[in-house]
TrEMBL record, chains A, B:
Keywords from the UniProt entry: Lyase, Thiamine pyrophosphate
Residues annotated as domain Xylulose 5-phosphate/Fructose 6-phosphate phosphoketolase C-terminal: 605-807
Pfam families to which the protein is assigned, alphabetical: XFP, XFP_C, XFP_N
Keyword rRNA processing: no
Family of this protein: Belongs to the XFP family.
EC numbers for this chain: 4.1.2.-
InterPro entries for this protein: Phosphoketolase, THDP-binding, Transketo_C/PFOR_II, Xul5P/Fru6P_PKetolase, Xul5P/Fru6P_PKetolase_C, Xul5P/Fru6P_PKetolase_CS, Xul5P/Fru6P_PKetolase_N, Xul5P/Fru6P_PKetolase_ThDP_BS
Domain of life from the UniProt record: Bacteria
Protein name from the UniProt record: Probable phosphoketolase
Cofactor: thiamine diphosphate
Coiled coil: none
PROSITE patterns: PHOSPHOKETOLASE_1, PHOSPHOKETOLASE_2
Keyword Hydrolase: no
The organism of origin for this protein: Lysobacter korlensis
Length: 838, 838
């Protein structure tokens, strides 16, 4: 679909964002805001400090205080303030809203709000709405066997792990895509705002479609301090900050207050008026979008809220400022248990919220504390969008078998695996127009998934030029040159019940290592929480790998992402190395059907021999590994002399080429060829759900025969996965090492001793007696390597013996008369626009 | 040093940035700019396409074209344009300038410029200034055995690897720190500008001191397109872009031109005038800083240069736009070798630069092409700042032995290792006031290095408040909540010849995994380039690790950074796990003396027993591992029954506790206790320079006795490092696994089966016959674990048997009367402000 002008999108009306005349905050609303806020603050402080005496029905004693104080007060009152105000507008406007807690370390606040609106008790009946419930609520926080101090899967309403900072806005936009009636309120702390990922995620607004997507309301919360420093954005002139926000494409609204003892009621009034104004602006934008009268990208409103760090805590402690200072970042009265004066200060602090007004005799919160709670699913803690598994619908998946490539014999045809995958994905897009997206850092075309652009566009809401292609206000493909953004958007999309793919270069995916950590942790913990429903897996498609530096001029990094992923909990990670078109189709169909995993699929995009028919591919991918009996020279009923194993597309090619050389030159050698496409099959049964039993493993790899294993990544990973296996001492792995400079594919495999000739030499050296018996042949293999290298140095491309090699031809070292070859691939098209690499 | 108002810094005058009246560009200068630019463009196109016929002395033929075309044309003419203009002002003003090539994939341009100014031939005499030299220059580019397609260590004048994008500005500011007379011209591509790290790095200007630091001139180069998409910043309204830059704190200057066939001479005139204006603004700021009249943070100028992508290439190819389109991103005429029409277009394109005017008969560039080259070291390709090893001066290191803590007996005293390290670092700062910096993401105080703030401040050039502490316009500590920025700044600082530390939480250091890749690659490649001089090592101090979730409420990630680092080339990585104060001091002294490494030091910051005297610590760290004979129960002349090994502070504590239990309860069991502090010692000799010989390894770990190894990180790393060792089948590793929720230290080690009781059980189970003989004792160990866990669930802190355990006391399971204990540490101070965690 080529569009030179953006289409008018007018097929959807929404009335969730209706305009309302703004009235000054009335006394009742003010009382409700104040009541909720005081209650949430009280519950937050209680969680941080109290083991017992939750309602202060008796004077506070040392024994009431937790021995290990842990939690973050500083950001919490601001979060509670915002939460209360959002409740008010949700009640007035019935707008479905979720709350993204950028400062996720404000965990006590989020728990407190979920408790006040009733969700917490519904999901955790043990935490009842009485004094004992409060005691449990307080005690469990940051306590052995309890809940983390940060927002986490355990926190109702959260889709956001409160560990690493930086992804609040990416997650928010991911949640908003294709949720046209949803408001995503995203609080960004001024600490988080300093991170790189957050700093670029403001530009997400250049991708959102005002009509078919929801609304993100960023609330930049300036409380001025991090752990031990002021924050940058709180210390630039206000006009500069406003310009920054306008430069990011927003209409900023500044609310500041609570300083120097200002009555919070004044701040309530100001924020309420601002929020009403902002929601009316949103309503206007939404209405214009619905009417088709929106002129370009709207300058969506955002709020800058400046309040004191640790607001409402003691102004000073031991002569140092506490409120409005970095000292209130975590636990302002750290020695409350051991210092009687501090204990007294803590008691005063707690009583300043007037708990007797907030909770009745039984300990249940009174109406003054809870009146702002919206109804049912409108409660932000109960919104099903924030427990996306509830809303998830399976994808309608077209039969991938229909996209099979013809494989009359192994290696008889050549395809670009990802290009064919793209054709299937195009159908997936067509069948699932509202809940499936493909994210990528400007590499979707380069990764040869271009077929999807025949059925959809790349979503884009910045300026257009007449020469633009495949850009539109709506599209299933979303591309920005930020791996952080792509992964963050996808995470937000998945966590709210949809499906998607992140396609990126393997070579740079380490950029999101820490994001993978956070998401894998979320999945791991969620699996143990009954009310968290399974979400679609996070699917990586990693192309442009290190074995093809010929296409990127040695700029690429390493294949170590797999190592990083394998460190995660076995239940949540899967690694697939399909090696041709049909295996890639089969693998990806599986991935898109799965839930709660991180699926890493590494697949080259260059033309590659097709080795398996679709039936064979399905069988192979179902087993996850298997013997290529068509490639080996085994004799039935006997053990092979040697096993040639491979995992990955380039290793598979080289192993098959080595096998063909051996078949020709040492025909009586019993060679078994094994391919591993599901890496987790190598692990012992007890350590990974996909692990082979030892018996199965031995039946494939033998107990005592040499195994020469050509692997896509760092060789030691294979050792690590197999070190408990009986045959491990006989395993020799060739793989990627950090070596020098080259630019032809065969150069690269030679550099890593993983080329066909070296694999043959490995076999000669590992099978007892063979090296001596075939000393001359061994020398010819050495010579072949030298000749191949000299050729590339002279000609800049692979030697024909390699470039033109095919499986079906009789393998000769100097075979020159074959027609189909991929050893050196695609010179003609490698550098055309759409296939370019960065 | 506490400062509530920033000090006036007036002790340095600089005249490199002098004001000059602006005159219109004269004809001669214009001709020089045009000549340089045409020549650089010609040389760039030649590198991408030509194997031969470098001066087009005969018609271009198929054989003159490389068979594999690789390189990036799109960004190159813009880089060449900027380079030429900077040459002009460098010549006029004699300002020492380096060039940061954000779009590092514009490698052909950077090589071309270095060739024109003569540096290339000086460093690579093979690439002479004649026709054969040109032939070699063209041929080597992206050719097997040649140079990469991107800016790289091989590129003179570069400090910037052109692989992953995002760090141009961080590197630029790192280079500018403490180089008051230096101008760092940093070109930021509009692709790179979309990355997170780049988006936040604009805020670096809130840290730079206008007087004692150099000047960064950001040049945002908008050529409009990435691989296959427009760029965000090129597609927002100009006023919005200007606001963004003002919001980032800059004074933007926009130069746009070259579109729709505009004569480049016009663009030359506009950029020249702008550059003169900008340099005069810089001169004014510098003068005001020198005079002490600068009012707050200056709004440093920056340039937005908007020119067509692929400027000067064919306007259209095959009916598609090429110039000013994403199609010119990489190789616009990809099939020039095989398509005669394309070959003709290429020849026309090359001839459009009029090579006969630019090169003389011999092939040497004529004056018209080179007249703009500055003299000697003022050439940007030759500036020694960009080959920092030349300028590097060894640090003056105070004797760390003077900071030794007293250790009358193993475990008799307790210290926070990083706090003592901070005292030594304070002296390092004092002795090296101009070439040593400590970078951190707001964690320097939290990591207990606060002593450095007694001798220096945290550099800060945003607004101040009276309550601020330790902030000043100048300071050796630089903190921003962005690991990307911290590492990027440090890299820039090291690459320009200085020294430093990056202190951060181990738990989040995965954020910079890919940056580590880039820097390790730089070091690896630089080692093989004779003219690249060694630079100071990149030193990580990783604290706040996963074993102390008690201090961060389970927000922390994993210990896998070590695994990632160990994947890098052995020559450039070192991993140290000091386990107490004296070993940390010894390790860090070594790191600060080393060059060309990435040193990863993991060190807990919580109070820990001191195990070794300084003499013992030095001996141990020099060996890198060793037997704690004071802790074992070996009998001289016999092999031990079991080896208890440890690496890391918490594992060392647990292993020693296990050893004490065994000593008491099974006194006749011959236990050897081994500590590994330099992880690379485990590797085989041939694989890492630090690797033990097999003989040494066997003498420590034995060939056949069970080894129970308690390791700080993921257990399989130890297997991977040792899998070639004879005794490997007898090695049993306990380490970090991805498990559930807890918050006391002992809970955490129990969860991972690495606690003392479980280690004892491991010994009972692994030493033949022992488990049966001590079945009752084994059960008591099991019970002790259950009791310990139940205690934490009830009390929220570790059981006294663990919390109060000491090495010197007789170890009893229920010992309750000891005074010094760190099993549960520091409850009182854990949560005070300065030690807080995020």
């Amino acid at each position: 679909m080529t569009t030179t002008t953006p289409p008018q999108t007018t097929d959807r009306q929404t009335d969730s964002f209706a305009y309302r005349p703004i009235e000054p905050l009335d006394a009742e609303s003010l009382a409700q805001l104040d009541g909720w806020w005081r209650a949430a603050n009280y519950l937050s402080v209680g969680q941080i400090y109290l083991l017992d005496n939750p309602l202060l029905r008796r004077p506070l004693t040392r024994e009431d205080i937790k021995p290990r104080l842990l939690g973050h007060w500083g950001t919490t009152p601001g979060l509670n303030f915002i939460y209360a105000h959002l409740n008010r507008v949700i009640r007035e406007r019935s707008v479905s809203t979720i709350f993204i807690t950028g400062p996720g370390h404000g965990g006590p606040g989020m728990v407190a709000n979920a408790y006040l609106d009733g969700t917490y008790t519904e999901l955790h009946p043990r935490i009842d709405r009485d004094e004992e419930g409060l005691r449990q609520l307080f005690r469990q926080f940051s306590f052995p066997g309890g809940i983390p101090s940060h927002a986490a899967p355990e926190t109702p309403g959260s889709i956001h792990e409160g560990g690493e900072l930086g992804y609040a806005l990416s997650h928010a936009y991911g949640a908003a895509f294709d949720n046209p009636d949803l408001l995503v309120a995203a609080v960004i702390g001024d600490g988080e705002a300093e991170t790189g990922p957050l700093a670029t995620s403001w530009h997400s607004n250049k991708f959102l479609d005002p009509l078919s997507d929801g609304v993100v309301l960023p609330i930049l919360h300036l409380n001025g301090y991090k752990i031990a420093n002021p924050t940058v954005l709180a210390r630039i002139p206000e006009e500069e900050l406003l310009q920054l926000m306008r430069g990011y494409g927003h209409t900023p609204h500044l609310v500041s207050g609570g300083f120097d003892g200002e009555d919070p009621a004044e701040v309530h009034r100001r924020l309420a008026e601002t929020l009403d104004t902002v929601l009316n602006q949103i309503a206007e934008i939404k209405a214009a979008a619905a009417a088709g009268t929106l002129d370009g990208r709207p300058a969506w409103p955002m709020i800058i809220l400046r309040t004191p760090k640790g607001w409402t805590c003691p102004k000073e402690i031991d002569g140092h400022p506490a409120e409005d200072n970095w000292r209130s970042h975590q636990v302002p009265l750290a020695s409350a248990r051991d210092t009687p004066e501090h204990l007294a200060v803590l008691e005063d602090w707690l009583r300043s919220y007037r708990p007797d007004e907030l909770f009745d005799k039984s300990g249940a919160p009174r109406a003054v504390a809870t009146a702002l709670a919206p109804d049912g699913d409108l409660r932000m803690s109960a919104n099903p969008v924030a427990n996306g598994g509830i809303l998830k619908r399976d994808l309608v998946l077209p039969d991938f078998r229909g996209f099979a490539v013809d494989v009359p014999a192994p290696g008889a045809t050549v395809d670009e695996a990802t290009r064919v995958l793209g054709q299937w994905l195009a159908e997936v897009v067509r069948e699932n127009p509202r809940n499936f997206r493909i994210f990528g850092p400007d590499e979707t075309a380069s990764n040869r998934l271009g077929a999807v652009l025949e059925v959809t566009d790349k979503q884009w809401n910045a300026e257009y030029l007449p020469t633009d292609e495949h850009l539109a206000r709506r599209g299933r493909v979303v591309e920005m040159l930020s791996e952080h953004q792509c992964q963050g958007w996808l995470e937000g999309y998945l966590l709210t019940g949809r499906h998607g793919i992140f396609n990126t270069y393997e070579a740079f995916v380490h950029i999101v290592d820490s994001m993978l950590n956070q998401h894998a942790k979320w999945l791991k913990v969620s699996k143990a929480i009954p009310w968290r429903r399974p979400i679609a897996s996070l699917n990586y498609l990693l192309s442009s790998h290190v074995w093809r530096q010929d296409h990127n001029g040695l700029s690429h990094q390493d294949p170590g992402f797999i190592d990083h992923v394998v460190n995660k909990k076995a239940e949540v990670v899967r690694v697939y190395l399909p090696f041709d078109t049909n295996t890639l189709l089969s693998a990806y169909d599986h991935c898109l059907r799965s839930v709660d995993y991180v699926n890493v699929v590494v697949a080259g995009k260059q033309p590659t021999f097709n080795w398996l028919t679709m039936d064979q591919a399905i069988a192979h991918m179902t087993r996850g590994l298997g013997i290529f009996d068509w490639a080996g020279t085994e004799v039935e009923g006997t053990e092979p002399d040697v096993v040639l194993a491979c995992a990955g597309d380039v290793p598979t090619l080289e192993v098959l080429a080595a096998a063909s050389i051996l078949r020709e030159h040492i025909p009586d050698l019993k060679v078994r060829v094994v391919n591993v496409a599901d890496l987790m099959r190598l692990v012992s049964e007890g350590e990974h759900p996909h692990g082979l039993t030892d018996r199965e493993y031995d039946s494939i790899f033998t107990k005592d025969r040499p195994v020469i294993f050509a692997y896509h990544g760092y060789p030691w990973l294979i050792h690590r996965l197999t070190y408990r296996r009986t045959g491990h001492p006989h395993l020799h792995v060739r793989g990627y090492k950090e070596e020098g400079t080259t630019t032809t594919p065969f150069d690269m495999v030679m550099l890593n001793d993983m080329d066909r000739y070296h694999l043959v030499i490995d076999v000669l050296d590992r099978v007892p007696g063979l090296g001596e018996r075939y000393a001359g042949f061994r020398q010819r293999m050495q010579d072949a390597r030298l000749e191949a290298r000299a050729y590339t140095r002279e000609h800049g491309e692979d030697i024909p013996a390699v470039a033109d090699w095919t499986w079906t031809a009789e393998s000769e070292l100097d075979a020159r008369e074959v027609n189909v070859g991929v050893g050196q691939v695609n010179t003609g098209t490698a550098a055309t626009g759409g296939d370019n690499e960065a």
